Amino acid sequence: xxxxxxxxxxxxxxxxxxxxxxxxxxxxxxxxxxxxxxxxxxxxxxxxxxxxxxxxxxxxx
Length: 61
Prior knowledge:
Helices cover 90% and strands 0% of the residues. It is mainly alpha-helical. The protein has one domain (2-60). The chain crosses the membrane at residues 6-23, 44-60.
C-alpha cells in the first residue's frame, strides 16, 4: 500500500508542476485570483475537488 501511495503522490507532483512549467505568467495570475477568494469559497473548491476525485476513483476501480 505504501508503494502505491508514494506513486500517487509523485504523480500529483508531476501534474501540479505542468501548468507552472508551461504557462508561468498565467499560473501566477490564477494564484493571485485564488488569494482573493474567501475561506468559504476555497473550502467549497476543496470539497468539490475531493468529491470529484473520489467519484473518479470509484468509477475507475
